[in-house]
Structure prediction request, 460 residues.
Amino acid sequence: MTFDIPTNTLDEAMSASLSGTVVETTGMLATVADFPAPVGAAVEIRTSSAARIAAEVVGFKGRLTMISPFGSLAGVRKGHTVILRRTRRTLPVGDALLGRVLNAHGEAVDGRPQPARSSRRDLNPAPVPAIDRPRIDEALPTGVRAIDGVLTCGRGQRLGVFAGAGVGKSTLLGMMARYSQADVIVIGLVGERGREVNEFLERDLGADGLRRSVVVVSTSNEPPLMRLQAAGAATAIAEHFRDQGKDVLLLIDSITRTALASRELGLAAGEPPTTRGFPPSTFAMLPQLVERAGRTPRGSITAFYSVLVEGDDPNDPIADTMRGLLDGHLWLSRDRAAKGFYPAIDVGQSISRLMPELVPAEHLAAAGAVRRLIATRTENEDLIAVGAYRRGADPAIDASIELGPEIDQYLTQANQDHITAEDAKQQLLALGVKAAALLARQRPTGPAPNEMTPNLRRAS
Prediction:
């Protein structure tokens, strides 16, 4: 049997007649003979016990087709039948998904009846063409003071939340889900520990947050294909609401575990490992997923992707790749978390590339002044800690010491506190005024540098 069947002829009518047989299973893959289904096709393994195991075509090896299951291969043996269900994997979507918790197939896992669906969406569509994307020129209030004040993000922007384990990523994402002014929240929990799912739903998101959210869950014990599809499913649901004219907030926790699932599949399919063992397909998958977020003429998807930084190493390959793909990043500091400052955002290491396009000049100037004072204090904290710095020697250091507690208070926020974007702005402007006054009061007296230049020239 040859493999020259065009994929566009494999429609629903033909799906029922296309079948093959299992000839081998290796690890998480099954190899099928006489089965020319395209990569990405949804298939089904039928066992002798009448069980049906959903799977997906992930590659080819000569004339054989490799498929990866969404469940366990236990019970599958040589000779079992594999049939084609769809040439591309799709997801049923609809407005009834709001307030529900789903798995990577879009099936409800919250113990309630399955929600009604109005249509199906491709799980891996092409991103919106660049020429069709309007400029991002409107801020999206997140309800988190440090973000709205110093790291303002826009509707349609993509940002990363970079941190090691246990620094407060999930809590920060939960705050944004509860307090942001997006119309719809879509959350993808990828590779989470089983116990953490209910913790996030009840403690971080809460009943009010869940009411306008859709949560897609794939825990760490599930096969890699399920974990990988969970991120795509969450994005497809966000695209559904965006195309209805909604402003959607998409939160993926975490993109690192999505990449790890992709690595497992790639290596199992025989791809060569590259940086830190990741195959080329992982680095190809990330931009395809991230570019699906953004603004369109109809609506927007503002996306935050949490990035687990291995050993707090900013040069981790996934972290490094994501920094290049995103429009900004929030770096969560283990040191700030250890001191009890939450959210533990290290403003000096974080950036929102679109902030200059989103806020007025006085807001941008105040944010810049606060960032400079934070940088000054960080650069000189060892001198200050050991008492080697003498007050009055440097006005900028003096200002950073005097305003340090107020800046820390500004950047700190309890997860039950909702701060409006206007309050965040006004409090930041007040800090900017204080910083300017301190620097003006402490500026050294005497001739200005440009007044001293002629005298120096005459002396020479």
